[in-house]
Design brief:
By secondary structure, the protein is of the alpha/beta class. It contains 8 helices and 8 strands. It has one domain: Rossmann fold (3-Layer(aba) Sandwich). Strands 5-6-7-4-8 form a 5-stranded parallel beta sheet, sandwiched between helices. A 3-stranded antiparallel beta sheet has the order 1-2-3. The N and C termini lie far apart (49 Å).
Length: 212
């Protein structure tokens, strides 16, 4: 017996021997998709495969949180604009949601601004930086595009360090190389190095598709 209540996002199950409640997969996936950019909500469906990225895609599909983090970064002295990093990260997260995992997504620039607003209003950070601990998978998109203020650097470092210390799965994307990240976030770069670093390099998908 299954009783599905979409308003709560939970499913009641009864097999005649026991009763239990579990997260509704359909609701969980839809909830996750709404957090992503519109262009990244279709998952791997329609993914324009590239030979240079094919093994990276396989690695993302097989990743289950060990090692603790995956960083999609720019190869040294290269450019990875428009190569599908965000799409790949969100596609991975959709698969996690399909397995009943909770997913969080933030563009780092937006997160830094949110933290700044909280400090301006409450004089100290009281919510955003502490709300990620219970999320099964957190995506931080476009690290290094945020304005490099002391507050942003401190809080982003803090969020990633907490994920690391608690070994909570994290995906980071960046148009910067790991060495460039290290200049601003030395501890973050060190933590990410204990995860999986993917040198995500390919031609610009958007240019080839004529997308601005």
């Amino acid at each position: 017996m299954v009783d599905h209540d979409c308003q709560s996002g939970w499913v009641y199950r009864n097999n005649g021997e026991r009763e239990w409640v579990e997260r509704c997969v359909q609701c969980n996936v839809e909830k996750a998709r709404k957090k992503f950019p519109v262009t990244a909500r279709d998952g791997w469906v329609g993914w324009l495969d590239r030979k240079e990225l094919s093994q990276h895609v396989v690695d993302l599909k097989l990743w289950r949180g060990d090692p603790w983090a995956v960083a999609l970064v720019c190869p040294e002295k290269s450019n990875n604009l428009g190569t599908g990093k965000t799409r790949a990260a969100c596609s991975t997260a959709i698969e996690w949601a399909e397995r009943g995992k909770t997913v969080g997504f933030w563009m780092v620039a937006d997160l830094a601004e949110k933290i700044r607003e909280e400090v301006s209003e409450f004089y100290h950070v009281i919510t955003t930086a502490d709300c990620f601990d219970d999320i099964d998978l957190l995506i931080l998109d476009d690290l290094m595009l945020e304005r490099p203020t002391d507050l942003a650097t401190e809080q982003i470092d803090r969020i990633i360090d907490r994920r690391y210390r608690n070994q909570r799965p994290l995906i980071v994307t960046s148009n910067s190389s790991l060495s460039q990240i290290h200049k601003r976030y030395p501890r973050v770069a060190s933590r990410l190095s204990e995860g999986k670093i993917i040198q995500w390099g390919a031609s610009d998908f958007r240019k080839e598709r004529g997308i601005k």
